[in-house]
Write a structure and sequence with these properties.
- There is one protein chain.
- The strands form two sheets. A three-stranded mixed beta sheet has the order 4-3-5. Strands 1-2 form a two-stranded antiparallel ribbon.
- Mean pLDDT is 85; it is low at 2-8.
- With 316 residues, the protein is mainly α.
- The chain has one domain: Rhodopsin 7-helix transmembrane proteins (Rhopdopsin 7-helix transmembrane proteins).
- It contains ten helices and five strands.
- Strand 1 (3-5) and strand 2 (8-10) form a beta hairpin.
- Helix 2 (60-88) packs antiparallel against helix 9 (270-294).
- Residues 43-292 form the G-protein coupled receptors family 1 profile domain.
């Protein structure tokens, strides 16, 4: 990827435009994104802390939830600091290798979250449809395997796509009309033919989205059928309440992904792409801990107990 000009080597760079075409919004956007990132870090790390120190939350559902919080924290940390930096500095250049590495880590956590949500859907299916067999069916070893599989597949997808991006050649300087190092924009500005890389990315993206959605939709269709067969209205409400937070999270997550892929001509609607990308990469990692904490009595009660204990210790 290093170009030679005479006796000097030239390191190709990208220029991340981000939101530079709206200079009057740079300070407000910086404050908004900084606030969102702060809430994301506090919310996700707080969720991990609460789950690990409270014995009441040492269950399978919260095991998945703690890993989802970790993935959200990592994903946001890969993307948001660079977004904040580009809002306050004039030099928005980034080396090709650094940009590709950012894509590599973002891809790992993005794919991992996709299949983590699918694993959580399967967990809810077993809990609602086979409650008596739940402990046996969702053993600790199976849960660990599902989580490890999600991380492993994320790493495999990321390393595969990263390898093909590194195999491309890049010009001295290219402009990326976005704030993230996405596969599509990196491949599109390469000086060599990106067809194989783009086709591979398309195949992996379709497979990941289709397979995860198939697991989720199948799980929730069976959950819905089981719940509607329950004789009591209170039993139906309780069953739906256990799935409410997760259903909200996957609707927002997959809804945003499908919206991004359904934009017919991204080059003619870059603002729409950027706004959707902000929601996908910055906002969703903040929303997940809020969704699960605000809709979950166990988490809220544990948080109140921890706060009360801390206040009681300080008052003595």
């Amino acid at each position: 990827m290093v170009l030679l000009e005479g006796n000097q080597s030239i390191i190709p760079t990208f220029i991340l435009l981000g939101f530079s075409e709206y200079p009057e919004l740079r300070v407000p956007l910086f404050l908004v994104f900084l606030s969102v990132y702060t809430v994301t870090v506090v919310g996700n790390l707080g969720m991990i802390l609460i789950v690990n120190i409270s014995s009441n939350l040492h269950t399978i559902m919260y095991f998945f939830l703690s890993h989802l919080s970790f993935v959200d924290f990592c994903y946001s940390t890969v993307v948001t600091p660079k977004l904040l930096e580009n809002l306050i500095v004039e030099d928005r250049t980034i080396s090709v290798s650094a940009c590709i590495m950012r894509f590599c880590f973002a891809c790992i956590f993005g794919v991992t979250e996709t299949f983590m949500l699918a694993a959580m859907a399967y967990d809810r299916f077993v809990a609602v449809c086979s409650p008596l067999l739940y402990t046996t069916a969702m053993s600790r070893s199976l849960c660990a395997l599902l989580v490890a599989g999600s991380y492993s597949w994320g790493i495999v997808c990321s390393l595969t796509l990263t390898y093909f991006l590194l195999a491309l050649s890049y010009c001295e300087s290219s402009i990326i009309n976005n704030f993230i190092c996405d596969h599509s924009v990196i491949a599109s500005v390469s000086c060599s033919d990106p067809y194989i890389s783009q086709m591979l990315c398309f195949i992996i993206a379709v497979f990941n989205e289709a397979s995860s959605l198939m697991i989720i939709l199948t799980s929730y269709i069976l959950i819905f059928i089981t719940v509607m067969r329950m004789p009591s209205a209170s039993g139906r409400r309780k069953a739906f309440s256990t799935c409410g937070s997760h259903l909200t999270a996957i609707t927002i997550f997959h809804g945003t992904i499908l919206f991004l892929h359904c934009i017919p001509n991204p080059k003619s609607s870059w603002l729409t792409v950027k706004v959707a990308s902000v929601f996908y990469t910055v906002v969703i990692p903040m929303l997940n801990p809020l969704i699960y904490s605000l809709r979950n009595k166990d988490v809220k009660n544990t948080f109140r107990k921890l706060v009360f204990t801390k206040l009681l210790c300080h008052s003595r």
